[in-house]
Specification:
Blueprint lengths: L4 H19 L4 H14 L1 E2 L2 E2 L25
Antiparallel strand pairs: 1-2
Helix pairs in contact: 1-2
Length: 73
């Protein structure tokens, strides 16, 4: 998987998702699970329309509450 350029690119993409979640105060496991599930719902004929993915961005107000880290008081 890592011994090809395409494998390295795929690996970097996968690893960037939990790191981006952490930077946006999200829970990586739940965020990753959500985007994989939700992206499948907007898929058409094997492709995903990028214009319809804004709701999956880490700053989206539409993310389920389980994706967000609880705020400590």
């Amino acid at each position: 998987f890592h011994n090809t350029a395409r494998g390295a690119e795929a690996s970097a993409l996968v690893y960037s998702i939990p790191e981006t979640a952490k930077l946006n105060n999200l829970r990586p496991y739940y965020y990753f699970r959500h985007i994989l599930t939700a992206a499948e719902a907007v898929r058409k004929k094997g492709n995903i329309d990028p214009a319809k993915l804004n709701f999956l961005m880490p700053w989206s107000a539409e993310l389920p509450e389980e994706c967000r880290k609880p705020r400590h008081s």
